[in-house]
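> example.struct
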C-alpha cells in the first residue's frame, strides 16, 4: 500500500495505515490493531500495533503516535 501511495502521488516517501479501532468478530479480529508502513528510496519499515482492552479513541491515538514514531525512525537512520 505504501509503495502504491508513493507511485500514485509521485512522492519520495509513501506511508500507509490500516487496522481496526475495535474488535470485529465477523472478520476474526479479536483485539484492536493497526498496521503501519513507510517506503522510500532509503528502504522500507513497518510496524504492527495490537491494543487489547483500549477504547476506540485511544487505539486511534496510539496509531497516530506509532505512525509519527515510525516515520521519525525511518528518516533518522539516513541523516
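> example.seq
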Amino acid at each position: 500500500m505504501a509503495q502504491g501511495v508513493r507511485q500514485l502521488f509521485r512522492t519520495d516517501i509513501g506511508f500507509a495505515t490500516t487496522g481496526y479501532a475495535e474488535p470485529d468478530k465477523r472478520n476474526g479480529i479479536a483485539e484492536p490493531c493497526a498496521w503501519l508502513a513507510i517506503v522510500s528510496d532509503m528502504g522500507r519499515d513497518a510496524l504492527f500495533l495490537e491494543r487489547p482492552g483500549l477504547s476506540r479513541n485511544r487505539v486511534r491515538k496510539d496509531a497516530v503516535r506509532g505512525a509519527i514514531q515510525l516515520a521519525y525512525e525511518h528518516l533518522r537512520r539516513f541523516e
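> remarks
Helices lie at 2-9, 56-76.
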